[in-house]
Amino acid sequence: MRAWLGREVSWRGQRYRVVEILDDGPELVLESAAAHHIQPDVHGRPRREARDILMIPVWDAERQERHADFVELDAANPVLAGQNSGRGSG
Description:
11% helix; two-stranded antiparallel ribbon; mainly beta; 6 strands
């Protein structure tokens, strides 16, 4: 799965980049390729620009099948196309 780091993927019509892979799960951490939004500080004041972050689990709760959100990642990506079915070395 480490080969996915830095790859661009599409999920529900939006473009993302894989910025991290959390071993616990595992889960993919995706950063939106879309425009930044303003992120407030703890007091609600606009502080900095940030991109949306999204976490996609690889396996379902029973760890038997790929999670539905993971399956929605674009199969056009060669890395995903080769590993999107079955429970390989992942």
